[in-house]
Design brief:
The chain has helices at residues 8-18, 22-25, 240-249; strands at 33-35, 43-45, 55-63, 66-74, 79-86, 93-95, 106-108, 113-118, 122-127, 134-138, 144-152, 155-162, 166-167, 171-175, 178-183, 188-193, 199-204, 216-219, 224-228, 234-239, 253-254, 260-266, 273-274, 282-290, 294-301, 305-308, 313-317, 323-327, 332-335, 345-351. With 353 residues, the chain is mainly beta. The strands form ten sheets. The chain has a four-stranded antiparallel sheet, with no helix packed on it. Strands 7-8-9-10 form a four-stranded antiparallel sheet, with no helix packed on it.
Amino acid sequence: DVIVDMTLDAFSAARDESSVGYQDNRPKSELVVLATTDGRTGDRVEPGNDVGEEGRVSSLGYGPEGFVFVYDSFGAETYSQSLWRSTNGRSWEQVGSDDEPNQGPIVGGDDAYFSFRYGRRAGVARSTDGVNWTTVYETDDAGSYFNTLAADEMGVVAIGQHNEGSVAPQLTISKDGRTMDFDYELGLVTVTEDASGDVLTTIDFDVFELDPPDQFQIDEDTGTVTITDTDGTVLMVITEAEAEASSQETEYVEDYSIPTPALAFSPDGTEWFTVTTSGLEVAWAQGAAVGKDAIVIVGESAGGYAAYGSSSETTVILSDGSTAGFATATTLAVPGDFAPEAQQTYVWVGRRR
C-alpha cells in the first residue's frame, strides 16, 4: 500500500522548512580550560575574549616557552584557527605567524615543539617558541602519512601508515609548439620546447598551498592560466577548457593494499631517519611514548583488514552455465568483521643501541 506520495519538490520544500533556525538552536560547544597544580582540584581560566564562542582545541602541547594550543573556531559560515600560549597555564596570549601548524598534535621536547605538517608529503614541523614553525622532515613519497607523534629525552618519533594509494599520472597539455607536464606525485611543472626538447622552465608546485607559484598567473575572469619563466616571459596560456579536456584523458592508478608501518625517528628533532620496521606488525598505531632509552608503540595488526581484488582473473559462473572472466588489478583494504583473522593488539619496543 502507498503510505506517502509526494513530488521531489514538495519533499525538498518540507526539508528546507524543517531546518529553519537550526543554526540558532543547535547545541553549541564551549571551550573549557582548567589549570591545576596538584592534579586534584582545578581552576577554570579564560584564555581571552577572542577565542570564539564555538569551536574546539585541535592541538595542545608543552615546551620550552610553556603551554601552546591551537583553537579551531566554527562560525555559521566561517572557519578559522588561532594559536594561544601560556607560561603558567593561567594567563594566556594569542600569538601567531604565517607558519602556524594546521594539523595536530603538538608535543614538546627539551628545547622545541613538534607538530605534523601536511603539504605535498606528510612531515614534521619544529618550533622553538611555539609560534614560528619550520618543516624539518618530509616522507619520501605521497603514500605515507602520520597519526601519532611523541617526544621526550630519547628523541622524537612519528608513526603512521604507508599505502600505495592513488597516484595521478602527468597532466599534459601541448599547444603552439610547447608542452606542459604537471607531475602530481613529484609536484613539478615543466614546459618544454617541442622542436628542440629544451626545458624552458621547471616549477615546484605544491597543490596544498593556497596561493599558486609566482610563475602561475591565474585570471579568474577569463578562466586562463598564464605560465611564465623566472624572468616573467610568457611561455604558455592555458584555458580552463583545455585543462578540463586534458584531465579527462588521465586516469588514476589505484592500488589500495593492506598498509605497512611508516616510522620516522630523530634523536635531536633536526636530523631524521626512516626507521626499519622489521618485526613491527602494527598497521594502525594507537599511541606512542618516548622514554630515556626506549620507545613504546601500541597499535593493531593488519590481520583485521580484508583485501578485495587481486592481480589475477576472477571467474564467475552465470545462470545459463557459461562463465565470464573479470580481470582486476586493484587491491583494496577494508576494515570489518568479515576479515579473515581477528585484529591483534601489539606492543612494540625499540631500544637505543
